[in-house]
Amino acid sequence: MARVVLGMIGLGTVGSGVVQLLNQHKHLQLKKIAVRDLDKERLSNPGCPITSDVSEIIDDPEVEVLVEVMGGEEPALSYIKRALAKRKHVVTANKEVLAKHGPSLFQLAREKSVTIFFEASVAGGIPLISTIQRGLGANQFSAVTGILNGTTNFILSNMEEKGLSYDAALAEAQRLGFAESDPSADVDGHDVAYKLSILAALSFQRFVKPADIFREGIRKITPDDLALAKEFGYRIKLVGTARNTRPGDKNGALAVRVHPTLVPLSHPLAAVSGSNNCILVTGDAVGEIIMVGPGAGSLPTASAVVGDIINLESALKLPDFASYFQPSITSEWAATASPGDWISPYFLRLSVADTPGVIGTIGTIFGNHQISIQSIIQRGVIAGRATIVILTHGVVGSDMDAALAELKQCAFLDSVVSAIRIYKPA
Ligand SMILES: NC(=O)c1ccc[n+]([C@@H]2O[C@H](COP(=O)([O-])OP(=O)(O)OC[C@H]3O[C@@H](n4cnc5c(N)ncnc54)[C@H](OP(=O)(O)O)[C@@H]3O)[C@@H](O)[C@H]2O)c1
Fold first, then answer.
1. Res. 273: pLDDT tops 70
2. What's the confidence (pLDDT) of residue 246?
3. Residue of 81, 195, 209, 237 marked catalytic
4. Cα angle 390-340-407, degrees, rounded to a multiple of 5
5. Among 125, 176, 257, 421, which is most exposed with the fewest C-beta within 10 angstroms?
6. Is the CB of 94 under 6 A from ligand 1?
7. What residue's CA is closest to ligand 1, atom 25?
8. What is the pLDDT of residues 221-241, one digit of tens each?
């Protein structure tokens, strides 16, 4: 006999994987699945009725758990709210809805004494959320950082290994099904920003509005950046970080950012290739934990969804279990630190006139803005123009902005081709 009755919205990449895994867990009864297009050809028989009317699931009193794997902000948000209001537990893979509406959704779940499980919303198959929430529950976290988007990691890996341009590497990722036809959610860093908001909520008890997250994507990275970074002993990765600027202080402003980052070749993040994810969690008791694995894909993501369902099913028997699974997240949005206050070392690539005194002037300008240069080289003089590559020590962001603004006034400067932050441990 079924011990828990499920209804699911969505039968795409993740939903199909969930159906496949649920076949191995017969005590979890999937009663009905809602899709957008009933006429669409499906690869296999899901083994239960399919409907295009979501109400048949949300309004069914027998359905105890709504599995939401349709994605997007609306109507997914409304469906989740309706299910919670009817005191159904929700298992969701939807990072966008959680990042944009987390405070009100968890508040509603608390009011209705139900739970929201969301292991699949960050890092796909890696059990990151339950690890932070429960396994590392004794810790105060100072930072969560990592490679949280497999598509951009695949593109950057391919650019470096094959010397491809960004456009060529993106086209290949699209051809292989690793990137959407509209890649902006991935390549412009929105996807990572949503995941960081969720990780901040778990680690620091406060969601961060996605609009408050500093975000730079990978569109401007060139094969030259990757090759030069490698010469200096680095690999460029799209790294997301959520850090409490005052560890241990529940009101400390959060520095939350996603941008291309030079990572030392010896660091575990540099070794993450292809579409994998890698996350470093820093806690006061445990130190640093590293988790690596598939961040997306049908079965890895379904593994997280069905894991949530199994956890929920075993807890459903207990009285008042919901409060145990409700993360202690406040209903306030987090205050964020200004990027101008962050300290990072930088990799800079400048295109300049090959004339005497250029390096001296750059040194003077940087010195005036408290920027200490770690190394500087001149490269490739073509038709009187040269490339200068500079690595700095840690610089306050506003000082770097001011120095670059002053540099742009110099007649010898054609352009600041690249200004990329270098990884700095939490
Ligand atoms: N794909 C991954 O590897 C991955 C990894 C981690 C998290 N996620 C998250 O998982 C969720 C699902 O992703 P996915 O890749 O499986 O998406 P997908 O392949 O595009 O599938 C979406 C499914 O939702 C259905 N749907 C869309 N709008 C609907 C509506 N208004 N009413 C009813 N059904 C609707 C679609 O119906 P039709 O089939 O009729 O079009 C489709 O079956 C997203 O939140 C995503 O961010 C995905």
1. yes
2. 87
3. 195
4. 40
5. 176
6. yes
7. 10
8. 999 999 999 999 999 999 999
